[in-house]
Write a structure and sequence with these properties.
Strand order of the largest sheet: 3-2-1-12-13-7
Structural class: alpha/beta
Largest sheet: 6 strands, parallel
Helix content: 40-55%
Radius of gyration: 25 Å
Number of strands: 18
Number of helices: 14
Distance between the termini: 43 Å
Bound molecules: zinc ion
Strand content: 15-25%
Number of domains: 2
CATH topology of the largest domain: Rossmann fold
CATH class of the largest domain: Alpha Beta
CATH architecture of the largest domain: 3-Layer(aba) Sandwich
């Protein structure tokens, strides 16, 4: 069996998931499920990044100890993943004691390789990003993704990682495909930035009370991004999945691109560990032109989505609107329209119509061995999920057309039978193709169309 290790970013544990988080995770889940259908040995990791100033401040705001705060959030996030039918194998948490131990070992190793030195750093810092910002990153003096009160000037003694030493190698690897970065537009962004001025990376912080202590200087904590990136590796050790390294796919939103495509490979090069086999970067979900996120206060809550559209409705809407190569504009009006036209009418109507006709004509469904359609598989492997869904919906339209043309309800049973049997085969294939995307719905349809076929309540009630 071919091993397939894929990861979402581990998300910042300072609040409940928002639409951007669940979009990324649903997308990764679809890829994980698809690979399992191909009988690959899948390891799917998601989790939480539980250290750092932002988490600490959020815990204080709720008057909680940071550990209690992240424990509660970890439970909440896992509840959401269950509600969204996410099939992760590992829910990684960076407060695991084993993670801290392995991170310390890795940092010692980087230091022994001569890639760490001490220096004073002065810069503009965005707490929202937990990142020092250069002039180029700022708009009107503040971070474009966070409010202006998240910005401050910091000067401190830090330890630095010799990022610049690895830049030529990383650039070469991105260009020659040793480190595949997709899609092309996101690769170009990184290459353009690699052509600019790059500084070494400060990998420790002073006075951050909530983090992993530097093994050789306990006054400093490890820069949260550095240890968070290491989770992809530490998890394979902690959960005894060593043979899955390196990751086949790091799947992430564009805000994390630099960290995953440059900093993470540089750390791995220093550690002399194999690099990830692919990095795929998707765009943002925008509401009213702004990235969805807590700091900007424009979040459509995940509870809203689940309540309105259910698990598979939510999965569908986020997958179909997930940009392959750009950001996407979403709003409730569009979601409602899409839900009604594609799920309540398109898929739901087809299933209801054919089931009724089969019931009237005593048609049974035969269990068959099925596989994902080849064209569909190609689209999923290119991570063009909205196109993959269009492909499935074109099959739905095709089946509808066939019913309208052949009018089986006007035929006697003998003549209707072969037409309906053919439609049953089509529906079974559609259901199978839907498995990675809408697992619960696919299962329902499969069940309804095996053995004696009967009408059932609508799959997706209209809204
Ligand atoms: Zn920021």
């Amino acid at each position: 069996m071919k091993k397939f290790y894929l990861t979402t970013p581990i998300y910042y544990a300072n609040d409940n998931p928002h639409i951007g988080h669940i979009g990324t995770t649903i997308f990764a889940d679809i890829i994980a499920r698809y690979n399992r259908l191909k009988e690959n040995d899948v390891l799917f990791l998601t989790g939480l990044d539980e250290h750092g100033e932002k988490v600490y401040l959020a815990s204080k705001k709720e008057d909680k100890e940071p550990q209690q705060f992240v424990d509660e959030l970890a439970q909440k996030w896992q509840d959401y993943w269950q509600k969204l039918n996410i099939s992760h194998d590992i829910f990684m948490r960076t407060t695991l004691p084993e993670h801290k131990e392995i991170v310390a070992k890795l940092l010692n190793q980087i230091k022994e390789n001569g890639d760490i030195y001490k220096a004073t750093y002065t810069g503009v810092y965005c707490v929202g990003c937990e990142e020092f910002k250069s002039e180029r990153d700022l708009v009107d003096g503040h971070c474009p993704e966070h409010r202006s009160d998240q910005i401050s000037t910091k000067e401190e003694e830090n330890y630095f990682f010799k990022l610049t030493k690895y830049i030529p190698t990383i650039k070469k690897y991105i260009l020659d495909g040793t480190l595949p970065l997709e899609p092309e537009s996101k690769k170009k962004e990184i290459l353009a930035r690699l052509d600019g001025e790059i500084h070494d990376l400060s990998i420790s912080r002073q006075n951050v009370p909530w983090g992993i202590k530097l093994p050789w200087d306990e006054q400093q904590t490890v820069y949260v991004w550095v240890e968070a990136l290491m989770n992809y590796y530490t998890a394979t050790k902690i959960f005894k999945k060593d043979d899955f390294w390196p990751a086949d796919l790091h799947f992430l939103g564009k805000g994390n691109n630099w960290f995953h495509s440059v900093i993470w490979p540089a750390l791995l090069l220093s550690l002399e560990l194999p690099l990830p086999k692919k990095i795929f970067v998707h765009g943002y979900y925008n509401v009213e032109g702004k990235k969805v996120g807590k700091s900007l206060g424009n979040a459509v809550t995940v509870d809203d989505l689940l309540e309105k559209y259910g698990t598979d409705g939510t999965r569908y809407l986020l997958a179909v609107s997930m940009p392959y190569n750009s950001d996407s504009e979403v709003d409730f009006a569009w979601f409602n329209e899409k839900y009604n036209s594609d799920l309540a009418n398109g898929l739901g109507n087809l299933i209801a119509r054919v089931a009724k006709l089969c019931e009237n004509n005593n048609i049974s469904g035969v269990t068959r061995n099925l596989a994902i359609a080849k064209n569909l598989g190609t689209l999923i492997e290119e991570y063009k999920l909205n196109e993959a869904l269009s492909y499935i919906w074109s099959e739905i339209t095709e089946a509808d057309k066939k019913i309208n043309e052949t009018k089986p309800w006007e035929l006697d049973q003998e003549k209707a039978k072969p037409i309906l049997e053919d439609l049953v085969l089509k529906i079974q294939q559609i259901a199978f193709n839907l498995k990675p995307f809408l697992p619960e719905t696919a299962e329902k349809i499969m069940k309804q169309f095996s053995g004696e076929i009967k009408s059932a309540p609508p799959l997706f009630p209209r809204i």
